[in-house]
Amino acid sequence: MTSKTFDVGAIRRQFPIMARPIDGKALHYLDNGASAQTPHAVIDAVVAYETTSRANVLRGVHALAEAATELYENARADVARFLGVASPEEVIFTGGCTAAINLVAYSYGQRLRPGDEIVVSELEHHSNIVPWYQLAQRSGAKLRALPVTPDGRIDVGALSATLTARTRIVALAHVSNVTGALLDVAAVVAAAKAVGAVVLLDGAQRAPHGPIDLPALGVDFYAFAGHKAYGPNGIGILWGRRELLDDMPPFMGGGSMIGRVSLEEITWAPTPRRFEAGTPPIGPAVGLGAACRWMMALDWNAVGAHEMGLTQRMMDGLAGIKGTRLIGPPGLQGRFPVISFTLEGVHPHDTAQILDSHGVAVRAGHHCAQPLMDKLDLPGTTRASIAPYNDAGDVDALLEGVGEALRRFA
Questions:
Q1: What is the DSSP string of 191-216?
Q2: CB within 8 A of 97, min separation 6: which ones?
Q3: What are the backbone dihedrals phi and psi of residue 168, each rounded to the nearest 5 degrees, phi first?
Q4: Residue 342's beta-bridge partner residues?
Q5: Which residues, at least 6 apart from 60, have a Cβ–Cβ distance to it below 8 Å?
Q6: For position 6, what pLDDT does the model report?
C-alpha cells in the first residue's frame, strides 16, 4: 500500500479471508492478539518466493539460491527498518516470539550464577515466564516478579524495591496480552541500567500496531512474532544489541552457524548466522519482510486513531451492559486495543461460543497468563483484540453477542 490515506474499507479488502462467511454470517475477526490475518501483499510475496525463487540460502551458487538469499536478506533489512535500527545484522530470524525469548534465556543466561536475579512481572505471557523459570532452575538464579496494579498495569512504582544489585535480566511485556496496558519502558530501562541489568521486551502485542523506535526505547533485546504482525506462521524476530549478541554463545548447533568445523575444534559464524542453525524459515521470513513493508506504508496516526476509536466504542458498549466487568485500564491512556472482560454468571468459553454463533471470533480462557488470573482471582476472561481492518460493525456484532450470552446464561 503506497497511499498514506486511511480507509478501513480499502484495508479490509486487502485481507481475502474477510470475505469468508461463518455459517452464513459475516466474519467479525477480533482474535488478532492470538493471530492476525495476512494481506495480499504478504501472501503474494510468499507465493512469489515459492514459485520463482525457492531454494536454500547462503551457500548455493546457482541463480535460484542467489535469488532466495537476496530475498531472505532483504527481509532482514525490512525488519531492521521496521524496528528503527541501522544494522540488519542485529536482527535474528527465529521460529517465533517464544523461540526468541528462549534463545536469550539459554544463551545470554549462561552467564548467570547462583544468587543472581531475573525480574519478570505478574502479567507476563507464559512464554516470558517459563524460559526464565527454567533458567533459574539451571543456574541457581532467583526469579522475581513486579506486581500488577488494580487496573492491570505493571507497577513500575515497585521497581526500586524489586531490582537489586543482583538483578541481571529484566524481561517484561511491552503491551499486556490480557489488559492491553502499555509498559512505562523509560522507567524500567532507567531502573535496570542503575543496577547493571539488561532489558528484554516481549513485543508480541505491540509490533502489530506499527513501526517501533528501538533506539529511543533504550532496551537491549526485543522479540516479536510474525503471525501476530500480519506475517506467516513459523517466523519470529529477536533483535539484540550487537555487542551483546557477539558475546553470546550459539543457542543451537548445526549447519550455517559455524566458521570452521574439525573434530577437535569448532568456531562460530558471526552474528546473526551463529544463531540461525540449519535451513532457516525462508518463505516465512520473506513474508514477514513483506508484512513489515505493508505496515510501514500505513499512516499510523490515522490507524491508531481508528483502532482506539473502536476500542472506546467497545469499552463504552460493554460498560453499558449490566453484568459486564472490564479488566484493564479504564481509559485509552497508555493502552493498546486489547480488551478483556467478564460476564457475571457466564463462563468465558460460553461467551466465546455465543459470539462465534454471531460470526465473532474472540479468545477466551487464561490467555497463557495464569499468574495474572490468580492475581485477579479469575478463571479466565473473554478477550477482543483489534487490528487495522476491523470496523464498527465488528464491535457492534460483539456487543449484540454479549447481550445474548447474558440473556441465555446469567
A1: HHHHTT-EEEEE-TTTGGGS---HHH
A2: 127, 202, 203, 204, 223, 224, 225, 228, 236, 237
A3: -110, -30
A4: 325
A5: 66, 68, 69
A6: 78
pLDDT digit string, tens, across residues 258-305:
999 999 999 999 999 999 999 999 999 999 999 999 999 999 999 999
Quick one: 391 exposed, middle or buried, by C-beta within 10 A (0-12, 13-18, 19+)?
middle
The distance from CA 300 to its chain's CA centroid, rounded to whole angstroms, is: 18
Torsion of CA 139, 242, 164, 109, to 10 degrees: -10
Buried b (16+ CB within 10 A) or exposed e, 269-300: bebbbbbbbeebbbbbbbbbbbbbbbbeebeb
pLDDT tens per residue, range 16-54: 999 999 999 999 999 999 999 999 999 999 999 999 999
List the beta bridge partners of residue 167: 117
Which residues pair with residue 142 across a beta bridge? 117
Low-confidence ranges of the chain (pLDDT < 50): 1-3
- Using the 8-state DSSP alphabet, how is residue 249 labeled? P
Q: Is 368 marked active-site?
A: yes
Cα 134 off chain centre by: 21
- Between CA 328 and CA 335, with CA 332 as vertex, the angle to 5 degrees is 60
How far does CA 212 lie from the centroid of its chain? Answer: 12
- 174 and 125 in contact (C-beta within 8 Å)? no
Q: What radius of gyration, in Å, describes the C-alpha atoms of the chain?
A: 22
One of 368, 400, 403, 404 is an active-site residue; which one? 368
C-beta neighbour count of 233 within 10 angstroms: 15
Question: What's the CA gap between 383 and 373, in Å, rounded?
Answer: 13
Q: Are the C-beta atoms of residues 339 and 180 closer than 8 Å to each other?
A: yes
The whole-angstrom separation of Cα 220 and Cα 199 is: 5
What pTM did the predictor assign?
0.96
Question: Rounded to an integer, what distance in angstroms lies between the CA atom of residue 210 and that of residue 202?
Answer: 15
Model pLDDT for residues 209-236, shown as the tens digit of each residue: 999 999 999 999 999 999 999 999 999 9
pLDDT value at residue 4: 52
Half-sphere exposure of 177 (CA within 13 A, CB side): 37
Q: Are the C-beta atoms of 180 and 335 separated by less than 8 Å?
A: yes
Rounded Cα distance, 326 and 318, in Å: 8
* Residue 169 cell numbers, joined: 535480566
> Would you state the pLDDT for residue 5?
62
Q: Which amino acid is at 221?
A: F
**Stated length of the chain:** 410
